[in-house]
Amino acid sequence: MRELLLLEDDGALGRGICLALESGELHVTLCGTAAQARSALEQGDFDLLILDVNLPDGSGLDLLREVRESRAVPVILLTANDLETDIVAGLELGADDYITKPFSLAVLRARVNAQLRRGTPAPTARYEAEGLSLDFDRMEFRKNGQLVELSKTEQRLLRVLVENRGRTVPRETLLDRVWPDGAEFVEENALSVTVKRLRDKLEETPSKPRFLKTVYGVGYTWVVK
User: Fold this and answer.
1) Interacting residues of 187 by C-beta distance below 8 A, sequence separation 6+
2) Residue 109: how many CA atoms within 13 Å on its side-chain side?
3) pLDDT greater than 90 at residue 108
4) Secondary structure, 3-state, 67-101
């Protein structure tokens, strides 16, 4: 699941953009003020930011400056400021794209998708950390140098988690990715059972996992190592 932060003080416009952009693969967090956006940024990671410039409590450009001090996340400025000097200023501050109002939702979707594609990491072929060596191309998985046999289902689950390491992957997304030919027919506890088997095979202490963490009520995270 990709995460997008939208900072837009026009509530109706913000809700419309959310409806246009949200999907099973993209979740949008809507903020109406710079203060709300700062709070959201402190609490979570985002794959893309869309920032209005003229806000009731400041400027989106100031927030852009703050973001660029610590993050490389793509940023699209979405604003009524359409002078050439405004666009140049926004881009020079570090914005990746600049869209002026009024705008087409189809164009906005296309530009959002373009930024998300650029920020998508290459598929993980090999991963090593703290005794684990996972080679997805050769389908060789080792723990402390010893080969570990994984089923095809366990391999698919492991790859999705590792490729999204550091992010919480919702249960629904995992079901669709791990059982693509019939997630709706999978037993309710199939995912939990597969997670347990992975922990038993890869974790030093399965009851206290270092890698495969449960985010209760949401899904699972492969912790960055």
Assistant:
1) none
2) 12
3) yes
4) HHHHCCCCEEEEECCCCHHHHHHHHHCCCCEEEEC
